[in-house]
Amino acid sequence: MKCEQIRVLLSPFIDGMTSEKENIIINDHLNCCSQCQKELEQLGTLCAALKNLPTPELPEQFTQDLHKRLLEENKLLFRPKQFKIPRRKGWVAAGMAGLAIAAGIFASINLPIASMIASWQGKNSQPITNKPSIAINEIIDRFTSGNKEEKPAVETPAKTNQPKVMANNINNNNDAVFRSGDDNKAGGSPDAKTEPTAVKEVNPKIADVYTTRLNVEKASESLEEVVQLAQAKGWNYNYTNSASKVQALSGPNATGLVLKVNKKDVDDVLNLLGAVGKASEPIHSSVELTKQYGELENQIKALQEQKESLQRSGEGDENQLQQIENQLQDYLQQKAALDKDLQMVTLNIHFVEEVNP
Amino acid sequence: MRTEEQLVKLSIQGDTRAFEELVAQYQNKVYALSFRYMGNEEDAYDMAQEAFIKAFRSLRSFKGNSSFSTWLYRITTNVCLDELRRRKRKISPISLDEPVATRDGDEVEKEIADTSLSADILYEQKEFSQYINDLLNEMKPEHKTAIVLRDVMGFSYEEIAEVLNCSMGTVKSRISRAREALRKKLTSRELLP
Question: Which of A147, A290, B147, B158 sits at a 20 to 30 Å CA gap from B113?
Answer without folding.
Answer: B147
